[in-house]
Amino acid sequence: MSKHAVYHCLAILTVVIWGVTFISTKVLIHAGLMPVEIFLYRFILAYLCILTVAHKRLFAHTLKDETLLMLAGLCGGSIYFIAENTALGITLASNVSLIICTAPIITAFLTSWFYKEPLNRNLLAGSVIALLGVVASMLCYLMWNAAVKVLGTAQTTSYIYIIPLVTMVASAVLLNERPTIASVSGAGCIICGVYWAERKSS
Length: 202
Hints:
Blueprint: H1 3-30, H2 35-54, H3 63-88, H4 93-100, H5 103-115, H6 121-131, H7 138-151, H8 153-157, H9 163-174, H10 181-201
Helix pairs in contact: 1-4, 1-7, 1-9, 2-3, 4-9, 6-10
């Protein structure tokens, strides 16, 4: 197995685990926990895990970098997960997962804007296809970051589209949520889009 194939597998494993977390969050909400409580417990656990393996690198080298990281954590962590957990208490887990898969196309544009990373036309085409029917801890992030480092941001984030497929299957099996025609159609578009984007960008 080639080096890149290993990191493709890591990215896929990560999104499978993330897809199942939608189900666990839904179960916790049904058990009476509030979205903010779930977020708080999840990140306290993640913080403690990070302390055990990277306690010497917990803070950035400069105040500017630390401030930027804090703002990134606020937007990408606190606001994101509280909104996601709240949505899971309102609608089907598969619906939330499908909406979240809009992230790769947004990430591709932001990466191009901030880091001048060229946009792959085929990746964009695959992203658009995967978005049709959509109008769906610590170990995962380590694997994800490793894959991003080797494969690049745009190529790795295209695997996020797989999350709705995992969530749809898991919610049907574990929560007895019946998939809708729109979600099944979206799943088909996601498979085609990811295949197209990965085949043309490799």
